[in-house]
Input
Amino acid sequence: MKQTQPQCILTTAPCCRIRHAGFQLVELMIVLAIVAVLASIAYPSYVEYRDRANNAAAMTDIAIIAEAIERSYVQNQRFPDSLAEIGMGGVLDPWGHAYQYLKISGAGIKGKGAFRKDKALVPVNSDYDLYSLGKDGASRPPFPAKVSHDDIVRANNGRYIGLAADY
Output
């Protein structure tokens, strides 16, 4: 008796093992490893980009608030007592913290303890201090303090707006 090979239903060719197209476990693991490597490279770059964007937004906000303070000074011949006086009291920095303002000129403050200070512990402004608490939400008056490094500050009476660590 002669054996015959079974025929495929759809074709007249003899049935052979059909290989299903698809991912095997090893292939899937390789793809996942590649995706993990790419993500581990890309995520720190994304975080750095986001921090730079938030810093730039805070610098722009400080420049806008400083302009409103200067306009108030020109109109009233005095600096405002608070940011609320110029309609900027509810403005938040990109990290969700209120901007900090301290009137120096004409405020009658005794001592220089509350003033923002540079590396030589010299006050950085003589008119008013305006700054963001930065990403960590904490700050101390001297710029060299570690918690102040990420603060976005106005210094030199407005001639510098940027990171406290870069001043």
Remarks:
- The beta strands are 100-103, 128-132, 152-155, 160-163.
- The mean pLDDT is 86.
- Residues 78 and 106 are 8 Å apart (CA to CA).
